[in-house]
């Protein structure tokens, strides 16, 4: 089974890129972030014509997450991260698909830091960590994937000295990510490629993609049972170079 995550940075504006990638890559399950579309503007017909079922949680102008499946319809579990009923951001959706529990997430950016946005990021991270513990305790095969907006180590960022004060790389952010991993989750990319320089995001400015000045901020975390089934993973870096593409590239894993 091939599962992918892709921050599309606007599902309607990037729809030709998304459809081309779906046709070429043919993942079984896809988690999308940053739909930037209200619920009623999600391009369901185009997604269905491409051969996918979909559930989604949209939001006008920003945020928004979705889960697509080539096979069975995803069975929605929830469309908000527990712990804050007043949080109206569309940043989390969870479903069962093909026997797996899949949480698709778009963690807050948090800049400028310090400040209210950074505080919200850390609170959201704590809620995610609490929910992740519950998912692990269930004993089910679970994937938590999406745009985490965190570079876990210096290996995951081009010129880390330039990012020391950024919300994506501050010590509090990295510590939160490592606390989450410490519950027993496996970082799929790092399990297979522990020493390699791998990026999933390249800014639009200063020819970042051409210089390979990137960040690894899109992650797959696997529960213990699924970690044993992991047999391959990668980043479709070439997609980032397509015309009118997102500043993220799709990331994928395959499970036995």
Automatic annotation (TrEMBL):
Name the residues annotated as catalytic in the UniProt entry.
106, 147, 248
Residues given in the record as Mg(2+) binding sites: 7, 34, 147, 149, 247-248
One GO term (biological process) = DNA repair
InterPro entries named among the record's database cross-references = AP_endonuc_1, AP_endonuclease_F1_BS, AP_endonuclease_F1_CS, Endo/exonu/phosph_ase_sf, Endo/exonuclease/phosphatase, ExoIII-like
Would I find Hydrolase among this entry's keywords?
yes
Gene3D superfamilies hit by this protein: Endonuclease/exonuclease/phosphatase
> In chain numbering, where does the site feature Transition state stabilizer fall?
149
Instruction: Output the Pfam families linked to this UniProt entry.
Output: Exo_endo_phos
Name the keywords, alphabetized.
Hydrolase, Magnesium, Manganese, Metal-binding
**Protein's name in the database:** Exodeoxyribonuclease-3
């Amino acid at each position: 089974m091939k599962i992918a995550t892709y921050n599309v940075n606007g599902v309607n504006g990037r729809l030709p890129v998304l459809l081309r990638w779906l046709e070429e890559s043919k993942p079984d399950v896809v988690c999308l972030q940053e739909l930037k579309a209200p619920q009623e503007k999600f391009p369901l017909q185009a997604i269905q014509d491409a051969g996918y079922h979909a559930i989604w949680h949209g939001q006008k102008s920003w945020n928004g997450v979705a889960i697509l499946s080539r096979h069975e319809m995803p069975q929605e579990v929830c469309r908000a991260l527990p712990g804050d009923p007043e949080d109206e951001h569309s940043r989390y959706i969870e479903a069962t698909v093909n026997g797996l529990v899949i949480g698709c997430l778009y963690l807050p950016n948090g800049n400028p830091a310090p400040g209210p946005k950074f505080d919200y990021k850390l609170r959201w991270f704590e809620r995610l960590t609490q929910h992740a513990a519950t998912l692990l305790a269930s004993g089910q095969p679970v994937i938590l994937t999406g745009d985490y907006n965190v570079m876990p180590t210096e290996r995951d960022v081009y010129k880390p000295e330039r990012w020391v004060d950024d919300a994506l790389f501050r010590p509090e952010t990295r510590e939160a990510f490592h606390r989450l991993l410490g519950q027993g989750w496996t970082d799929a990319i790092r399990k297979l490629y522990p020493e390699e320089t791998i990026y999933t995001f390249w800014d639009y400015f200063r020819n970042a993609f051409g210089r390979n000045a990137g960040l690894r901020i899109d992650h797959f975390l696997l529960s213990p049972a699924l970690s044993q089934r992991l047999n391959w993973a990668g980043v479709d870096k070439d997609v980032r170079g397509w015309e009118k593409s997102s500043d993220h590239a799709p990331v994928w894993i395959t499970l036995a």
